[in-house]
Automatic annotation (TrEMBL):
Coiled coil spans: none
Lineage, top ranks: Bacteria, Bacillati, Actinomycetota, Actinomycetes, Mycobacteriales
Gene Ontology molecular function terms on file: acyltransferase activity, transferring groups other than amino-acyl groups
Keywords: Acyltransferase, Transferase
Annotated source species: Nocardia alba
Matching Pfam families: Acetyltransf_1 (PF00583)
Name recorded for this polypeptide: Ribosomal-protein-alanine N-acetyltransferase
């Protein structure tokens, strides 16, 4: 997962007790996804044109959280021809954080993977994003590797993978040099 600075300015949700509805993303959601990306994941947010191209290839597996017509979260899955998926983006609006929406989006994404006979799901997460790391660990993602400059200088990431099907192939080659750049191992793993 990418990590940004947060924000959430301009989003006013008056009925905080109603739960957002999870649904499949449609092309009309891309502007709202791009806005949420910019607020929650700056400076590493995907620009609109990248989201559009990713949507054209992978959008059938994208999930959004809709609260009264306002997009307040999303999970973006990319599934390759080898039946391995990447969670290429996930964010929840600042006003909806801490209510289990991230967990709901992740569970829905994993359900989509099970239905689609996906072998494994990979994610990257900033080592300081302890909330996301806890969520992924609780959801069965295991630590596979570390790259101190995944998104450039000063942008380290952990690689975590969750096995979905009983396929016996290891989802990520543990000898892959992309993940041997550092000797960083998270505590307790």
């Amino acid at each position: 997962m990418r990590r940004g600075s947060g924000g959430g300015a301009g989003l006013d949700i008056s009925n905080k007790s109603a739960k957002p509805r999870l649904r499949s993303a449609v092309v009309d959601d891309l502007s709202a996804i791009a806005e949420l990306e910019a607020r929650e994941l700056a400076p590493l947010a995907y620009p609109y044109f990248v989201l559009r191209q990713l949507f054209d290839v992978h959008g059938s597996r994208w999930i959004v959280a809709d609260h009264g017509g306002v997009l307040c979260g999303y999970a973006l899955l990319a599934v390759g021809p080898d039946r391995k998926a990447w969670l290429i983006g996930m964010a929840v609006s600042t006003h909806h954080q801490g209510r289990g929406l991230g967990r709901s989006l992740l569970e829905r994404a994993l359900t989509e993977c099970r239905i689609g006979d996906v072998v494994s799901v990979s994610i990257t997460v900033h080592p300081s994003n302890t909330h996301a790391i806890s969520l992924y660990k609780e959801s069965g993602f295991t630590w596979v590797g570390y790259d101190p400059e995944y998104f450039g200088a000063g942008e380290p990431r952990q690689l975590r993978v969750k096995q979905i099907t009983a396929d016996t192939r290891w989802p990520v080659d543990p000898n892959d040099r992309r993940w041997s750049k550092g000797e960083h191992l998270p505590p307790g793993e």
